[in-house]
Amino acid sequence: MSDESRRAVVAALIRLADSTEYRDRADAGTCLASYAEMPEAGATLRRLVLDAVDTYVTRWTAAALLRRMDRAGFAMIASAFASADDQTADWIFTAVEDTVGHSESDLAVAMAECAALTSGDDDELVRSGAGRLLEDMRQALRATDPQN
Predict the structure, then answer these.
(1) Tens of pLDDT along 35-86?
(2) CB contact at 8 A, 50 and 84
(3) Segments forming the whole domain that contains residue 19
(4) What superkingdom heads the lineage (predicted)?
(5) Residue (of 32, 31, 29) closest to 21 by Cα position
(6) Are 107 and 137 in contact (CB under 8 A)?
(7) How many other CB atoms are found less than 10 A from the CB of residue 128?
(8) Could you give the C-alpha distances from 69 to 75, 112, 113, 142, 143, in angstroms and in order?
């Protein structure tokens, strides 16, 4: 797909993200996550992860970003996690557990990406959110690990 086509898709998804219908916003977030590396998608993705109206939007947008299993997705999640209220942070972390918590290899990738973001990102929100995510993943792993 050409850059022009990708920008057109992102623009259409940004318009869909402005819908008053929660299902439209969740669909926009799920699809827009595929374009998380594009700067023009960032603000809208962050707004959808932190959706002020419906945690369904938060949950599905966060899961789509996490399924990328890359720096762009984890950075977006970390930034949102750092500034989320308690309820929204719980839903973001539910997406983390559901998306990467069932596979040791996925969890290892998630933890490595978050560890790298704690010192390797210019954005303080990303660094602090990645640190919180990393600690929460460690605690959740210990809580479910029968060896501990």
Answers:
(1) 999 999 999 999 999 999 999 999 999 999 999 999 999 999 999 999 999 9
(2) yes
(3) 3-144
(4) Bacteria
(5) 29
(6) yes
(7) 18
(8) 11, 11, 8, 22, 23
Handedness of CA 68, 74, 79, 84 (dihedral sign): positive
pLDDT at residue 142 in the model: 61
What is the Cα–Cα distance from 3 to 42, expressed in whole angstroms? 16
The CATH number of the domain where 74 resides is what? 1.25.10
Residue 36 has phi, psi (to 5 degrees) of -60, -25
Residue 97: is it exposed, middle or buried by C-beta count within 10 angstroms (0-12/13-18/19+)? middle
Amino acid at 52: A
Looking at the structure of the chain, the number of domains it has is 1
Helix (H) or strand (E) holding 100: helix 86-100
Interatomic CA distance for residues 50 and 108, integer angstroms: 25
Confirm if 82 and 125 have CB atoms less than 8 A apart: yes
Paired tokens of 146: 């029968």
Q: How many CA atoms lie within 13 A of 47 on its CB side?
A: 16
Q: At a CB cut-off of 8 Å and minimum separation 6, what does 141 contact?
A: 107
